[in-house]
Design brief:
Chain A contains four helices and no strands. By secondary structure, chain A is an all-alpha fold. The chains are: A mainly alpha, B alpha/beta.
């Protein structure tokens, strides 16, 4: 359970900036219902970008919090990519 | 054999061999002070034991379990890095609840040292306050062995004494390996001292040994 909580704590830092930028890009690229689909498509690529910016480049020391929960960098990257793909695909299917 | 055993660790950075002849063991109830000059490889060794840094070769065992990486360390070894590592976007209360198991979290949330900060995010705390929280979540965690890299960094004298007392009190159930540039604090609480010298570890019996291996100036003996 602590691993799941740890993953959520890690991921939630990425949600707001990724969602905000994805919506902006969706509005720029689509109209009507296509906005949501384009936002979902953008979200798949933008979240890993924010992962890189927020954790690897700006706060690399924070990784130690997650390492102590047994989460390696590889596992955190995997979680980011997979979760973002799932959320992105759901939005694209709407 | 019970306890934490570290052996055969080698690590090169380019052509420079940083660690070459390492042996450390620590059992529950022990506080091992790890001393060494700047650049002697103390932090590198702790990261290798923890599993966050790859070694060229290593053997780390706790009781009968051979530890190969971070995932196998869960609730066995925790590592306190030199710099603050708390997530800045969540409240101290949530950090404690994620990091510690239920009963330990309840005990920690009731501590006088922690209570004023529960509703704050770690980014709102001073460096010293962050350090206190970091040390406490480690001490109150399930981990059997704690590797502390500069635990007293940024702490005032009062907090240093409180943390030293807590480490001593919790060492009944845990083993500690501690390194800190203020060697006096380490000597105060250690049950054994290891000196890192020329990439290897030397068992230190008394302060004379620290002078002999060039860690302390000879004048430090006359000051005691």
């Amino acid at each position: 359970m602590r691993i799941i909580n740890g993953l959520w704590v890690f991921y939630r830092k990425l949600v707001i900036p990724s969602a905000a930028l994805s919506v902006c890009l969706g509005l720029m690229m689509g109209t009507g219902m296509k906005v949501i689909g384009m936002a979902g498509f953008s979200y798949i690529f933008i979240t890993p970008f924010f992962h890189l910016m927020i954790y690897d480049l700006t706060n690399p020391k924070e990784y130690y919090f997650y390492y102590n929960l047994g989460l390696s960098k590889l596992m955190l990257w995997f979680a980011t990519v997979v979760t973002s793909i799932i959320i992105g695909l759901i939005l694209m299917a709407i | 054999m019970s306890g934490l055993h570290v052996d055969s660790v080698t690590k090169n950075f380019g052509l420079r061999q940083v660690l070459t002849d390492i042996f450390i063991s620590c059992t529950k109830g022990e506080i091992i002070g790890l001393l060494g000059r700047n650049g002697s490889g103390k932090s590198t060794l702790l990261k290798i034991i923890f599993g966050s840094l790859n070694a060229d070769n290593k053997f780390v065992k706790v009781n009968d379990k051979h530890l190969k990486g971070l995932y196998s360390n869960i609730d066995i070894i925790h590592y306190l890095p030199q710099d603050s590592f708390l997530p800045k976007h969540i409240k101290v209360e949530d950090i404690i609840k994620v990091f510690c198991k239920k009963q330990q979290a309840i005990n920690l949330l009731e501590l006088e040292l922690v209570r004023p900060h529960l509703r704050k995010r770690s980014a709102e705390l001073s460096g010293g306050e962050q350090r206190v929280i970091e040390v406490l979540i480690m001490i109150y965690s399930e981990a059997e062995y704690l590797l502390f890299d500069e635990p007293f960094n940024g702490l005032g004298p009062l907090h240093i004494e409180i943390i030293k007392d807590l480490i001593k009190a919790h060492s009944e159930r845990k083993g500690f390996i501690i390194t800190d540039h203020d060697y006096r604090n380490v000597l105060d609480i250690s049950t054994g001292i290891i000196l890192m010298h020329d990439g290897g570890t030397k068992v230190i019996k008394d302060k004379n040994d620290l002078v002999r291996w060039g860690y302390l100036p000879s004048s430090s003996l006359s000051n005691t």
